[in-house]
Structures are given as structure tokens and as C-alpha cells.
Design brief:
Elements lengths: L5 H6 L8 E6 L2 E11 L10 E7 L1 E8 L2 E8 L3 E4 L5 E16 L18 E2 L1
Parallel strand pairs: 1-8
Antiparallel strand pairs: 1-2, 2-7, 3-6, 3-7, 4-5, 4-7
Protein name: Cupin domain-containing protein
Length: 123
């Protein structure tokens, strides 16, 4: 066991949309990532995701039936995106985000593109 200092973990990288593993909880991983600008629309067939904004603001765009819903998260706020829900995170300014999700979760879900990270770095 060792304590985790989030400020220290976020200071160790500068890239955006590339989650880093900072801990394991059984079959789940605790990850940190920096968000900036727009990600990609995607969903996860098997995994739920928990987003917790540590610093900044993130808008989680969600497609619900025939409409789009936007959930704006400020520092200290989080949201669970259930499996199968099409979503796209957007951060107008740099945001620091903690993620809790199964270890099998691919950051871009059902989409594979230049933002896909298959082998996550551990901090």
C-alpha cells in the first residue's frame, strides 16, 4: 500500500486524452487523464465509466434517443456513464480527471483512431 498524491500524478505528464493508471481495485483501475478540447463520440459495450473532475470543467455530451444531453461537471463533481451510452467528453480549458473503470476499458470504446491508447502507462 502507498498513498496517492493526485497533484503529483498530474504533474508527471502533459499529454491529453491518454489515461494513466495510478491504482488497481480488483478488476477495476483508477486512472488519471488530462482533457482539452473535444474527444470522440464513442460507447463501451461492456463497461460503465466513472468520471470525477479534479480540476477544471468537463462537459459530457450524451446521445439519448433522438436528442443530445450535456452534463457539465465542475471540480469535485462526477458522473457515471453506463455501458452502451454514446458519449463525448469536451473540455474548453485543460481539465484534470480521475476515472474509475474496468481494466478492460479502451479509452475510445468502440472507435479506434489516433486517440486510442491500448497500452496504458502506470504512474
Amino acid at each position: 500500500m502507498q498513498k496517492i498524491n493526485l497533484k503529483d500524478k498530474f504533474s508527471q505528464f502533459t499529454d491529453f486524452w491518454s489515461p494513466k493508471v495510478i491504482g488497481d481495485l480488483g478488476d477495476y483501475q483508477v486512472k488519471v487523464a488530462k482533457f482539452h478540447n473535444q474527444f470522440v463520440w464513442h460507447h463501451h459495450d461492456q463497461e460503465d465509466e466513472f468520471f470525477l473532475v479534479i480540476e477544471g470543467r468537463v462537459a459530457i455530451h450524451v446521445k439519448e434517443k433522438d436528442s443530445e444531453q450535456i452534463y457539465t461537471l465542475n471540480a469535485g463533481e462526477g458522473i457515471v456513464v453506463p455501458r452502451g451510452v454514446e458519449h463525448m467528453p469536451v473540455a474548453e480549458e485543460t481539465a484534470h480527471v480521475l476515472l474509475l473503470e474496468p481494466a478492460t476499458t479502451l479509452n475510445t470504446g468502440n472507435v479506434v483512431n489516433e486517440k486510442t491508447v491500448k497500452n496504458l502507462k502506470r504512474l
